[in-house]
Amino acid sequence: FRIKHIEDSGLFLTTYTGILNTSGAQGAYTYQDVNTTNKLTNTSRYTISPSKNPAAWFKVFKEIEEDPSKIVSGIRTPTNNIPIGNNKAALSIDYFANSQIMIGKNETLNDYFANKASNIAIKGQIADITKNSHEQILKSLTDLRLSIYGVNKDE
C-alpha cells in the first residue's frame, strides 16, 4: 500500500504524532509532489518504504500496560483542554470501526477489510493455479512440436 495524501486540520499530525511540519493544505503530504517528503518531520523517525513486519518493532510502554487510563486520547474541550484518560477519541474510533456502515454487502469496516483480505488471497491462489495450468499447456505444446519435427514427410 502507499499513502497518497496526508493533511492535518488541527494538531494531531503536527503536534501529537509529529509526522507533518505544518497544518493545512500548505503542509500536506501528497505523493505526486516530488518534494513532498520535505513536509514530513525528522526523516530518521520514519521510513518511506514499508519495513518487513513493522508491527514487530512496536512495544507498548510498561506504564500504559499497567494503567491504560494514562493514554491521552481525549477530545479537546471548549476551553482547549484535553482530558487525560477519558478515552473518548479511542472509543469513537472503535465505535466507527464496528458501527453499521454498508460498503457493498459488508456491514462494518472490519467486515469490509476482512473481505478484501480474503479476496486478495483468493486471487493469489487463482493466479498460482492459472500459472501452473499455462506452464503445463506450454510444456504439452512444446513436446508436441518436438515430436512433429522428428517425423520425415517422405516416410
UniProtKB/TrEMBL annotation:
Q: Which SUPFAM superfamilies would you find in this protein's record?
A: Phase 1 flagellin
Task: Give the record's keywords alphabetically.
Answer: Cell projection, Cilium, Flagellum, Plasmid
Its domain of life reads Bacteria
Q: What is this protein called?
A: Flagellar hook-associated protein FlgK
Gene source species:
Borrelia miyamotoi
